[in-house]
Amino acid sequence: MAVIAVTGDIGAGKSTLSRMLARLMKCPVFDADKIAAEVWTRPEVLRVFSQRWGDDILDSQGNIIRPKIAEKIFTDDEEHKFCNSVIHPLVMNEIHRLTAGNSDSVAEIPLLPETGRPEWIDRVIYVTADFGIRAERCRNSRGWTDDELRRREKFLLPQSERLRICDYVIRSENSLSELKAKAVKFLQEIEI
Predict the structure, then answer these.
(1) Which of 55, 128, 134, 182 could cysteine-pair with 11, CB 3.0–4.6 Å?
(2) Taking the alpha carbons of 27, 104, 30, 188 in that order, is the dihedral positive or negative?
(3) pLDDT tens digits along 59-104
C-alpha cells in the first residue's frame, strides 16, 4: 500500500498531476480542498466560526459565504492560524480514513507543509512552476489577479521550508505529455 501526497505552489498543476498519478496507479484521488469544502458545511464547524466572526459570514440558509471567509483568513495572520487550527486536523483525519481503505491512493494536499507530514504518507511530491505561468493559470481558472496570488502566497511558509517535507520536486511548466512522462518516471523510481 502506498499513499502519495501531492503538494506545491498555488497554480502549479497539483490537481493535474494528482489525476495523472491516479490514472497510472489505478487508484483514487482524495482532494483536501474538496474535503475542506465538506468540512465547512458541518454544523459544529459553522458554529465555531460564526461565534468568532459573527453570523454575517453565513448566508440566509446558514451556509458560509466564501468571499467573506477568504477576507477574514487572507488579511490577518491570527485569523488564518485560527482557521487552519480548526480545519486542517479535520481534513487530515478524513484523508487518513479514506486512504486507509485503499491499497494505493493519491492525496492532493496543498497545505501539507503547513499542516505537517503524517507517518501514513509514503511519498510527497512538490509541484512547482515559475510565477508567471502560475499567475496566468490562476487568472484563467480562478479569475485572480497577480496581486491576489501574491496575497494568498504570503500566508504560506516560504518555499524553501515547504520543500523540507517533500521527497520529489516536479516542475509543471510545459506540455501535459511532458508532465505525464515525469509522473511515469516518478512511479518507476518508487517501483509502483
Answers:
(1) 134
(2) negative
(3) 999 999 999 999 999 999 999 999 999 999 999 999 999 999 788 9
Task: Tell whether 91 is covered by a domain.
Answer: yes
CATH (domain of 141): 3.40.50.300
Report pLDDT for 192: 64
- Give backbone dihedrals phi and psi of 132, rounded to 5 degrees, phi first: -60, -40
Q: Which range of residues forms the domain containing residue 50?
A: 2-184
Whether 180 is covered by a domain: the verdict is: yes
SS3 180: helix
Residue 79 burial (CB count, 10 A) = 17
Instruction: Give the amino acid at 155.
Output: F
Over residues 177-188, the pLDDT tens digits come to 999 999 999 999
Residue 73 lies in a domain: yes
Provide the number of structural domains found in the chain.
1
d(CA 152, CA 150): 6
DSSP classification of residue 137: H
Tally DSSP H helices, then E strands, for the chain: 10, 5
pLDDT level of residue 132 (50, 70, 90 thresholds): very high
